[in-house]
Design goal:
Length: 928
């Protein structure tokens, strides 16, 4: 048989393939004594050797490209021969090389040069360098086709190479200066791989650094080169400098100086270059600062307290102040960084605050040369000396029980005149001797503008500074003064202003600046666009103007002063005029007298008639709730309190059922015919106050609270022996003579009953109050009290009770003063006396409406058989005014005319068949 002949060694494949640059391989037969041959004849194969079987070397570089056939032939000793032939394809390889191309700048991008040794030479920090293969890497087969970095020497560095999907790049930014080696591997379409290696020399790029030694425009700016070269194995040095000063000027010096014309920010650049041609650009935004324009203001605080200094320096368009030095002129000097606080204990504790705005306490009054020196962050400095006047103001602390009142009779009151700009001041204190202003509001002396021949100066800008006030003890602060305006209308004017920073900034006492409706306070400013602008108001020009022909009393609240700033408040009256007055008129200017600073004295009382079943009354209740919320949002107390009477008309009200008498009596007193009706301090004029709750605005409440009350009242209670009785005591003192009859009343009020606020529970001095007919002298006192009044009405929460006392003119119905206190904890009691006694169930079911009644009252009957039942209407004395029975009802209703009865509260007695009686109360309120 034929011998078995096979050989192995070719790579896998059918047929196997090799690249012409592959390393030689060994083919191994399975016999000994055979021979390897190859065709075509132009191909060569190594000699066959037995080791221990037949072997031959196959070198792809020694054969033809394409198909080659290797045959292994063997004959055995019997002369039998066999062979094995295998095809192998030898693929050609591709000659490859690569270059490097810059990517920064404008196309076409230049290529990196190659030196005589075939090495690339380029500078570091020139961005991405593109590796350009020849042929292109994109034409080779992945993943073998690629660029990689390998060490150029043992332990040498490698370069970071990135691939964006198409091209390869070396990142030179941050690449250390050294020799790098790049390997380009290319795999062609025949899977034949070729490589190319080149070295790269990365030269060191300099790092340009700009140093600026100064930044003030008052001298040349000195620049120094701080550029450095990173470590490099290739010797080099910085050899060139190019400065761009960003103002159109340049320099090639290493360390130049340059004068800038204007201050500002300049983006200076420096380009440095090395002997190897590597460059770098450094940019430095530099500051060229202005010399600061030093300015400061100061204010003398009262009571020999601190003098506040306020820096107003203009450091220029870009600079900021870094350091301050204050020389206060009394030997004390303060030095520190801007923004720092003054260290505790500085100058023995006499200097506090901050370095920019210190407070300094002078030990004595007088004139001091103070100096402020400032440094800026741009190295500029400047200083200013001013004369500071320390004035002997004193601080006044009005109390709620002791207000500030100054009538200027004995002294000028500590008020000091001053010119606010270079001009004369016409303010004088004394007896007015003008053409029109010839008397004081009281006494003989006033402050007035009469120094210029009994008139004022042209173009005058002057003030009279009042003392400092500590208003922290007042919770409802106000100011009032008597004034006389005698000026050219809407040309000259006077204004009252306040300051909380010692006189640095002044604000008007009055409505907010810019508010259109300025009808607030009492007799307050009547001018809104006064050209002379009294007090140098930054916005608006408000004040008093015109010829008023006599003394007026002006009043305004001081709520506009922030509560946190009320410990030191200065007041002043400022005056301003234009350049002349018409020759046809005489003008005395402005005078003021009797300045009052204290709490509002009047407690405003709002009486609100409501009905819980009507939506409009709910709106009125909510409106009053909101006005109360406004008050407490402004201050800790309210200018007003309110009483809410629940009345039964035009429909029943559950709270009225619990006590119809007192609400009905009050409604009858005011001729209230429907809910809601709202009355402030008993005033109903049909014009401004019509009974609508919308009439009771915050402005009107404030205006009313500014009016002095005719009486002062003190309300308290005395202990009783049980929880359902109460003793109230109202002490009344007249503040001026008075002769008309008064009504004194104390009302028990529950603050919240199922959501209803300030519900009137009971009149403790009777439904109509206690009438006082005694004439009053100034200071006369009377105490009105009612002992052990039974609380025969329901009380929901005995801890939610208050008492409201008031005195009221019985004829005009104006309430002169009111007072609210917390009531002791009390409980209601079962109604006795004239209320229902449930002996006859049918009698108790008879209803009576409307109540209060106008002209007619109706009895609603529960049964068609009312024989034997009668009714009587009796007055408070028990005298029966009307009576009858229920025999002639119409559809279960008996109507009774009450038009002839005087308005008031009546008892209705319903008698049953067994002579048992049921009692009701009827309020008659005929309106004719």
């Amino acid at each position: 048989p034929q011998p078995i002949v096979v050989f192995s060694g070719f790579p896998a494949g059918a047929p196997p393939q090799m690249a012409e640059n592959n390393a030689p391989i060994i083919l191994t037969g399975n016999q000994v004594g055979g021979v390897f041959t190859i065709s075509p004849a132009t191909s060569n194969i190594g000699s066959t050797t037995a080791s221990p079987v037949d072997k031959a070397s196959f070198d792809p570089a020694a054969v033809d490209l394409g198909s080659n056939f290797v045959t292994y032939t063997y004959s055995d000793p019997n002369g039998c021969m066999n062979s094995d032939t295998q095809e192998v394809i030898v693929n050609p390889v591709t000659n490859v090389d690569f270059t490097m191309q810059y990517t920064i700048g404008s196309a076409p991008f230049p290529f990196v040069p190659i030196n005589a040794l075939g090495e690339f030479e380029l500078c570091g920090n020139v961005g991405l360098i593109k590796l350009v293969g020849n042929p292109a890497a994109s034409s080779g087969l992945p993943p073998d086709t690629q660029f990689t970095s390998i060490p150029a020497y043992g332990g040498g560095p490698t370069a970071p190479i990135s691939f964006d999907g198409t091209d390869y790049y070396i990142q030179t930014n941050g690449l250390v200066s050294d020799r790098y080696r790049i390997l380009y591997t290319y795999k062609n379409a025949f899977n034949a791989i070729t490589t190319k290696i080149r070295d790269i020399k990365i030269f060191a790029s300099p790092v340009a650094t700009i140093n600026v030694l100064n930044s003030c425009i008052n001298s040349a700016i000195d620049f120094t080169d701080g550029s450095v070269l990173p470590p490099t194995p290739f010797p080099t040095s910085i050899s060139g400098w190019q400065w761009n000063f960003a103002d159109g000027f340049f320099s090639n010096q290493q360390n130049p100086s340059h004068n800038y014309v204007g201050s500002g920010l300049y983006n200076v650049s420096l380009t440095v270059s090395t002997t190897q041609g590597c460059t770098n650009i450094g940019n430095e935004p530099i500051r060229v600062g202005d010399v600061p324009v030093v300015a400061y203001d100061w204010s003398a605080i009262c009571n020999n307290d601190d003098t506040k200094f306020m820096d107003q320096t203009d450091p220029g368009s870009i600079s900021v102040i870094t350091n301050y030095m204050w020389d206060f002129g009394d030997g004390d000097i303060l030095i520190g960084a801007a923004g720092d606080p003054v260290p505790p204990g500085t100058h023995g504790g006499r200097t506090t605050g901050t370095m920019s705005d210190p407070d300094h306490k002078y030990s004595s009054f007088g004139t001091y040369d103070t100096k402020l020196s400032v440094d800026t962050n741009d190295g500029c400095n400047n200083s200013l000396i001013q004369k500071v006047f320390i004035l002997p103001f004193s601080t006044v602390t009005p109390l709620s029980t002791s207000a500030y009142n100054e009538d200027f009779e004995l002294t000028d009151g500590g008020w000091v005149k001053e010119s606010t700009m270079p001009s004369d001041t016409s303010w004088i204190w004394g007896v007015p001797t003008g053409s029109n202003i010839t008397t004081a509001a009281s006494g003989a002396k006033v402050w007035w503008t009469g120094k210029n021949g009994n008139t004022y100066f042209p173009n005058e800008k002057s003030v009279v500074n009042g003392p400092c006030f500590d208003l922290t003890q007042l919770d409802r602060p106000m100011v009032s003064l008597d004034y006389w305006a005698d000026m050219e209308n809407n040309v000259d004017g006077a204004v009252m202003q306040y300051s909380t920073d010692g006189g640095i900034n002044w604000n008007i006492v009055g409505p907010p600046v810019g508010q259109v409706d300025r009808n607030e306070g009492i007799n307050w400013f009547n001018g809104v666009t006064i050209p002379s602008n009294p007090g140098a108001q930054p916005l608006g020009s408000y004040g008093w103007t015109n010829k008023l022909g006599g003394w007026k009393n002006g009043r305004f609240n001081l709520d506009m002063i922030p509560a946190i700033d009320r410990d030191q408040v200065r007041l002043r009256v400022a005056f301003a005029s234009n350049d002349g007055n018409p020759a046809t008129n005489t003008y005395d200017g402005f005078a003021f007298d009797n300045v009052f600073v204290g709490n509002k004295k009047r407690n405003v009382l709002v009486e609100h008639f409501t009905n819980s079943s009507l939506a409009p009354t709910t709106s009125g209740d909510n409106y009053l709730d909101n006005r109360l919320a406004d008050q407490f949002a402004l201050r800790s107390v309210s200018d007003f309190s309110d009483l809410r009477y629940h009345i039964s008309f035009p429909s029943p009200d559950d709270l009225n059922i619990e006590n119809p008498t007192d609400p009905g009596a009050r409604a009858s007193y005011y001729n209230v015919s429907q809910a809601p009706s709202t009355i402030m301090d008993g005033k109903l004029d049909g014009v401004k106050f019509t009974g609508s709750f919308l009439d009771i605005s915050n402005t009107e409440i404030d205006r009313r609270a500014l009016v002095d009350p005719l009486f002062e009242i003190v309300l308290d209670t005395l202990p009783t022996n049980n929880s359902n009785t109460i003793t109230a005591r109202l002490s009344i003192t007249a503040t001026q003579p008075f002769s008309a009859p008064l009504i004194a009343q104390v009302v028990l009020v529950e603050k919240n009953v199922g959501g209803a606020k300030n519900v009137v529970r009971k009149h403790l001095f009777g439904a109509d109050g206690a009438t006082i007919s005694t004439p009053w002298a100034l200071g006369q006192n009377l105490v009105q009290s009612k002992a052990d009044v039974t609380i025969n009405v329901p009380i929901s929460n005995g801890s939610q009770l208050i008492l409201v006392g008031y005195v009221q003119d019985k004829n005009t119905k104006e309430i002169y003063q009111s007072k609210v206190i917390n009531a002791p904890v009390k409980s209601g009691s079962v109604v006795v006396g004239l209320e229902d006694e449930p002996f006859d169930p049918i009698a108790t079911q008879i209803t009576m409406y409307p109540n209060p009644s106008n002209g007619e009252v109706n009895f609603g009957l529960p049964s068609n058989n009312m024989k034997g039942y009668t009714w009587r209407i009796a007055d408070q004395r028990g005298v029966v005014m009307l009576e009858g029975d229920f025999d002639n009802d119409i559809n279960g209703v008996v109507s009774v005319g009450v038009a002839d009865l005087p308005n008031g509260v009546y008892h209705v007695i319903i008698t049953g068949r067994n002579n048992s009686a049921s009692y009701k109360k009827l309020v008659v309120m005929n309106r004719n």
